[in-house]
Amino acid sequence: MKEQITNALSDFFFEYETPRQVLVRNRRVGVVCRLIQLGVLGYIIGWVFIYEKGYQSTETAISSVFTKMKGIGYTNVSGEERVWDEADYVFPSQGDSSFVVMTNYIITDGQKMGRCPELHGKKNCSSNADCEGGSFKRQMTGVCVNTTNTCEVLAWCPVEDDHKIPDPALLMSAENYTLFIKNSVTFPLFEVSRSNLVEGIDGAYISKCLYDPEKAPLCPIFRLGDIVKLSGFSFETIARVGGAIGIVIDWTCNFDVDVTHCKPYYTFHGLYGKSDEKDRAKASVGYNFRFAKYYLEDKIAKRTLIKVFGIRLDIIVQSLARKFDIIPTLTAIGSGVGIFGVATVVCDLVLLYLLPKREFYKNMKFKYTDTQTQDRDSEAGSTETATYT
Fold first, then answer.
1. HSE-CB of 338 using CA atoms within 13 angstroms
2. Strand (E) or helix (H) holding 223
3. Are 242 and 312 in contact, with CB atoms under 8 Å apart?
4. Global pTM?
């Protein structure tokens, strides 16, 4: 037992193993091997280095977005004229990257807390039994109002009537509003900062430019009507019931060239609001919300309730910067060299298990010796050649 352990340790520390090389002259196997190696080489060059740019390191940016809407809206409802400015139709007004531009509305003036009949069709009744106390979207009092045949509710009265949405939209002039976007991105790994106000975009240019995908693709001022059109929506439809649009600012940069080539690319996507939507959103087309303005009149708290239909704009920044790095380059090369071994594995399978002379190749590839005997050819380090055509 002791001698066996000693021999095992001696073999482990003092012997060296090396693969036996067998040169096989076979046209079919040789062609298969070279085709596989050629395919691996094409994968490394075409996919890893050219398409995936495996020789570069990558990083996404830290970004910030500032927005500002400009434009004046005008409405004339039942002879009441009104002018709407940015403080009236932008929600919220702080210049966020996600905001709503009001294009249509329903106003309920002079609401005060009290008891009043519900709208017809909301909760009809024929007796007080149909209006038992409790809640049905609004708090019912248990009284059936005979003049309207609807239940009495405790609410802000008169209750809002939003059955009929103004058509066309009251603020169709919103089509000519303009949106100014200021975006900055920073790539900490590469110590590079960029702004969408790139070289050549100065105050004089901004004062007269308007974004156009072909003529002015770098102008940071966008007409709302153009945004809607480029997103695939109809302004008349989305202005009436509201919807959502995504503005994507894409920063795809290669810092192996001058940083001035790193410029933003704008795309526009209709997210929600198409009248022909066939998914679950069809049950609730459009985008709207309510807000109220409170005031006192004769020491009585009152409010003006406004149901807003608008275009929600979500500004999304996407970024990916690349630059040459020796570490991913060596990693990609090492991975490719390792894949070359696939050719050897496939050819060995063909030789040892598929060809008619597979037993001959097995005898040439594998050599079986007694553990205590060393073959003279092994000591001489000879290379054998098997020829079969």
1. 6
2. strand 221-223
3. yes
4. 0.75
What stretch of H or E contains 195? strand 192-195
pLDDT for res 375? 47
CA distances, 345 to each of 20, 37, 163 (Å):
15, 12, 74
The CA-atom distances, in angstroms, between 177 and each of 70, 158, 277, 327, 372 are: 6, 34, 27, 50, 93
Which amino acid appears at position 26 of this protein? Answer: N
Closest listed residue to residue 118, CA positions, set 163, 159, 162: 159
Query: Which residues make Cβ contacts (< 8 Å) with residue 293, sequence separation at least 6?
Result: 303, 304, 306
Which residues of the chain register pLDDT less than 70? 16-21, 133-137, 273-284, 366-389
Q: What angle do CA 206, 208, 211 make, to 5 degrees?
A: 70
Q: How far apart are CA 191 and CA 186, in angstroms?
A: 7
At residue 39, φ and ψ (nearest 5 deg) are -65, -40
- If you search the block for the tokens 């050549």, which residue do you land on? 200
What is the C-alpha separation between 104 and 88, in angstroms, rounded?
12
Backbone φ, ψ for residue 200 (5° rounding): 95, -10
Tokens standing for 24? 């096989």
Contacts of 165 (CB under 8 A, 6+ apart): 104, 106, 240, 241, 309
Give the Cα separation of 135 and 169 in Å (integer).
33
Can you tell me which residue has the tokens 């609004």? 138
